[in-house]
Amino acid sequence: MKLFRGSSGPETIAEQGSQKLSRRSSGLGELSRTWESAEALCVLDLGSTSATNIRHFTERGHRIYSEDLLTASTDPELLATDENGVAALDSRKFLADNLVYPAAHFDVVLCWNLPDYLDESLVKPVVGRLWSVLKPGGMLLAFFHTRDAGPDSPCHRFHIIGADTLEMKRIVLRQEARRPPTGAARGVTSTSDGFQLQRVFNNRHIENLFRDFASIKFFLARDNIREVLVVR
Amino acid sequence: MSAATPAPTSGLAQIGKSVFVKGELSGSEDLYVDGQVEGSIALKANSLTVGPNGQVKASVEAKGVIVLGKLEGNIQASERVELRKSAIVTGDITTQRISIEEGAYLKGKVDVHRADVK
């Protein structure tokens, strides 16, 4: 594990009303060097659909796939009850419908803050699938909140607006998706118009989550976010 | 046609929201679909608009495609694709230009081809 004290963090509030923030990202900066120097990369963006990101990659001759996994996890058909009668999302069904790609297909996966907001039952299966669809040597970027961020930390969509700069905007769910995945049964997720932080990973949890990957690098940001860059 | 809320105008071929069509659709005029279509849609020199109530399960080949409703299938547009904020699209998109409003949902690959310089 490598630890870096990056210069990451929110810098300016561009539009206060729409909660649009920009932040420096050391992890993105390092990843950017890959797509600025390589040709025809295959990139998977797992955040909310972003025209900015699509333009960013297609202008550089890369192929981009967009798949909004958080929204997909709100599908009511995923809700099941396990043998103990506890409500959980059906991870097999989820992976049958999502992240269906050939093995070793992608050079880069942009996870953003997906693991922090994804339902508990889906996190490990999704990371396992991401390992298999990444090429050996392929890289994955993910953001994790620290405990200081607090439970009400809003979920953002991320737009790449510079080599190491992101624009963040709070996600407001579609009306039909405003259903807590399993949270209603567990009392974890309150009904709201956005996704709720499901948990806070510590560094050991993050290392365990990505234990099948070849290397992991942490960037400590000033805004209670740890950026993690892992290599398969 | 308004840029903000495309709606069918007179003279425009349209499939209303109570209509279900299964099969191959092809034509040489713009088409507005607010109903259900399953199969394929080919409007090589014209545009397709999927209205807010539209549910299309078809491969689409057109000059321009605007989606406000649901579209499941690959889109091949020779000029432009627009996904409005209510759009839900599952499929690969090949086009010259694409615009996506915040809130639109896309699951698939995007290939943007530059226009040939003459």
Task: Map the helices and strands.
The complex is a heterodimer of chains A (232) and B (118).
Chain A: E1 2-5, E2 9-15, E3 20-24, H1 26-37, E4 42-45, H2 51-58, E5 63-66, H3 69-72, E6 79-81, E7 87-89, H4 91-97, E8 106-112, H5 114-117, H6 120-133, E9 134-145, E10 156-162, E11 165-170, H7 183-186, H8 203-209, E12 215-220, E13 225-231
Parallel strand pairs in A: 1-12, 4-5, 4-8, 8-9
Antiparallel strand pairs in A: 2-3, 3-11, 6-7, 9-13, 10-11, 12-13
Chain B: E1 13-15, E2 20-26, E3 31-33, E4 36-50, E5 55-67, E6 70-72, E7 75-83, E8 88-90, E9 93-95, E10 97-100, E11 105-112
Distinctive features:
heterodimer, A: 232 residues, alpha/beta, Rossmann fold, seven-stranded mixed beta sheet, 13 strands, B: 118 residues, mainly beta, 11 strands, 0% helix, globular
Q: What is the CATH topology classification name of chain A?
A: Rossmann fold
Q: Spell out the helices and strands of chain B N to C.
A: EEEEEEEEEEE
The largest pleated sheet of chain B is described as: 6 strands, parallel, barrel
Q: What is the domain total for the residues of chain B?
A: 1
Radius of gyration of chain A: 17 Å
| Total E-strand runs of chain B | 11
How would the global form of chain A be characterised?
Answer: globular
Q: Can you write the helix and strand succession of chain A as a string? A: EEEHEHEHEEHEHHEEEHHEE
Major beta-sheet overview of chain A: 7 strands, mixed
Largest chain interface and its two residue counts? A-B, 21 and 16 residues
> Helical content of chain B, roughly?
under 10%
Low-confidence spans of chain A: 11-17, 183-191
Strand order of the largest sheet of chain A: 1-12-13-9-8-4-5
Neighbour order of strands in the largest sheet of chain B = 5-6-8-11-9-7
Structural class of chain A: alpha/beta
Quaternary structure annotation? heterodimer
Number of domains of chain A: 1
Q: Superfamily at the CATH H level of chain A?
A: Vaccinia Virus protein VP39
CATH level 1 class label of chain A: Alpha Beta
